[in-house]
Amino acid sequence: MLPSLPSAEIVFGICAPIGVDTAKVYTLLSEALKKYEYGSAYFKVTELMKSAKPIGAVLHESPIEDRYDSYINYANRIREIFGLNYALSMFCCAALRNYRRAFHNGEDKPIAAQAYVFDQFKRKEELDLLRQVYGRLFIVISVYSERTTRQQNMVSRIASDHADARLADDHKAIASKGT
Question: Are 82 and 7 in contact (CB under 8 A)?
Fold first, then answer.
């Protein structure tokens, strides 16, 4: 049996549709954790999945509308290769272990008063695996914003990516496809 920690590790998973400002969620969560003297480590699930190099999947960083499609296809290809709908959450477990090892000079043991935040999940199976692994120490933060707000966020991101100061109608059409 593992020894109990005075301030146990906590694992958070952010779940939100495309267009929600999850970085703001992390900022607010991180500030709240500091009040309880918890450190926090932030991981983008889409960055973690890049460690896999599935054949037949390519990531595009720009334009942003192609980026979203390529990341979705890349994640789906990883799930297909592994034959597991929760494959991306396995990368999260590995990232957590690697973080611990770096903290403890090679040892994989819990870190007191440490939170891990994984941003973001799209599949129930990924959340289910993390619940199974971390039990009650895994907390899902489900974030929602109005469709119009998500679309406006996407329009702004697309316009910024295209260095286009005006929020063109074609940006709106692209944004409404993804949200």
Answer: no
Whole-angstrom distance, CA of residue 99 vs CA of residue 107: 10
Q: Give the tokens for residue 117.
A: 């935040």
Say if CB 65 and CB 178 are below 8 A apart: yes
Give the C-alpha separation, 121 to 44, whole Å: 9
Q: Each residue of 93-113: pLDDT tens digit?
A: 999 999 999 999 999 999 999
Cα separation, 59 vs 168, whole angstroms: 26
| Structural domains of the chain, with CATH | 10-144 (3.40.50.300), 145-179 (no CATH)
> For 152-179, what is each residue's pLDDT tens digit?
878 887 777 677 655 555 545 554 555 5
In contact, 19 and 120? CB cutoff 8 Å:
no
Strand partners, 135: none
Q: How far apart (Å, rounded) are the C-alpha atoms in residues 89 and 96?
A: 11
Cα angle for residues 20, 153, 143 (degrees, 5° grid):
15
